[in-house]
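Archive entry: two folds, one per protein. Generate the first.
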Amino acid sequence: MSILRDRRLNDIIVFIIAVIIIASYIIVWAPLRTFTSEASAWGSVIAGFTMFVGAISAAVYHVNKVIRREEDWWLNAYFVAMLFIMFFLGIGGVGTKQAYNFIFTNIYRQIGTATSALGGLFLISAFYRSFRLQNIEAGIVIVSAVIVGFTFATVAGSMSPLIKPMGIWLLTYPTMAAMRGIMMCIAIGAVAISLRVVLGMERGLRPIEEDVTQ
């Protein structure tokens, strides 16, 4: 096995870097802070290179689908065309900034708006299927959601003067308390995953061949 694919070497490197970065927030030592800053910069460089490799892989995948004329291949062709157009306009010289901004504003942003609208419709559909009035807990959720929804509607004031204060109260106290609990759980989960990664216990970082053999 190549030394670069040795899982133990990967675990050791991750452990050492993690310990140094954590120690830089505890120990006030200039060389330690300098190393942490350089490591963060190199992490950004590696992340950018990873995105570039991912873009190439996506282009190759879609080009193969276009060559084989698979189902809806024209969508793959559109993806490849827009990928290369935006790439070359983004790194181009004089005269390309206007074209880049035009495509971003009139195509990308409009597609994003349409996608968000479709996501809202699916969310409403899932909400209707999930929170049918079967018990008192579901009833409380439905009533709270309706009140909060009408709080930001333009017709809320004409319907009842109590809707907006009730909606703001629900957002300020019960919703905020629930969100803080959720964020605390997410933070604890992130710490647990980080410890698993640092200690080499996370199976998702293992090579595929090693996972299969085990």
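Generate the second and append.
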Amino acid sequence: MTKGQIVGLVGIVLLFIGVLFLPVMNLPIIGGIPYIKGDGIFVLILSIVALILNFQKENKRVFIWIPSLIIFFILVWFGINFSERYASMTAEMDIKLRGNMFKPLANAMMMSVSLGAGWYAMMLGGIVTFISGFIKEEKKDGE
């Protein structure tokens, strides 16, 4: 295997782990939610496409940047959407619970809502996979 293929495989493994095993979002009481229950199926399919492209010859393997860039945009969209919804829920909660004695408890629960390790693993995997498509192999004298 070439250096680019090894780097690509590391990124793809991070994508698979992030989609299948790690939570993409942490919620109070419920716990971690895996991404495979949402848009993760698209990330999983694109990761399989990237895996197939990773083991192609060098002239076809360079196209690995296409599925990894799509994965990156899906995850950025998810992160922005998550941030916007979190901000609107927090603002709405502040308005609706004004004067309520349970507002500190609700604030504590809202503070525990966060992006999970799966989102970070998939972002890192998408970036590493994207970079792997641009790693050029040196030509040896015998080739």
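Annotation attached to the second fold: The radius of gyration is 20 Å. The mean pLDDT is 89.
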